[in-house]
Amino acid sequence: MKTKRVTSYALHAVAYMSKHITQLPVTAEEIANREGISSGYMLKIFKRLCETNILRQVDGGYVFARDPHDISMLELLKATEGGALFDECFMKHCDCKGTKENCRIFASWEQSTRQMKKLLSDMSIDQAAWHHPDHRLNEIKDQK
Q: Which domains does the chain have, with CATH numbers?
């Protein structure tokens, strides 16, 4: 699965916030500087995370709208990727009309994505944060 860059940025932002929860609120600019990305872009991401009830804006910056343990990775992915991530077959433009009865590929796709959605639904952003190494996003770009 290939995700948008915004998803990676959002994950790094909430991971940082989760690991430094006692130091919240934090500004979008602080996160952007910490992660090595544009503060304007981070503001757009934070706006989207506020619209989807993952973050909320308070005096001095942003905090979690809910306990990070209660926010799933699937919820974060839906907020950043938009819409239904796994609900359509990747061969949706095929003439078979993509039903599991007439297409073995779609049947396998549906089974696999159901498992992936469950994994992402069961993993909180807090859990993901504590199992992700600390690094700056620009360090990753420099290594490519």
A: 5-83+124-143 (1.10.10.10)
Nearest Cα neighbor of 24 from 48, 54, 1, 58 is: 58
The 10 Å Cβ neighbour count of residue 138 is 11
pLDDT per residue as tens digits for the range 34-62: 888 899 999 999 999 999 999 999 999 99
Q: How many residues does the chain have?
A: 144
Put simply, whether the predicted model's pTM sits higher than 0.85 gets the answer: no
Sign of CA dihedral 7, 9, 15, 20: negative
**Tokens matching residue 76:** 């974060």
Question: Phi/psi class of residue 83: alpha, beta or left (left: φ > 0; alpha: ψ in -120 to 50)?
Answer: left
What is the Cα–Cα distance from 47 to 59, expressed in whole angstroms? Answer: 15
> Which of 74, 54, 79 shows the shortest CA–CA distance to 64?
54
13-22: per-residue pLDDT in tens?
A: 999 999 999 9
| Rounded CA separation 135/100 (Å) | 42
Is residue 95 helix, strand or coil? coil
SS3 state of residue 72: strand
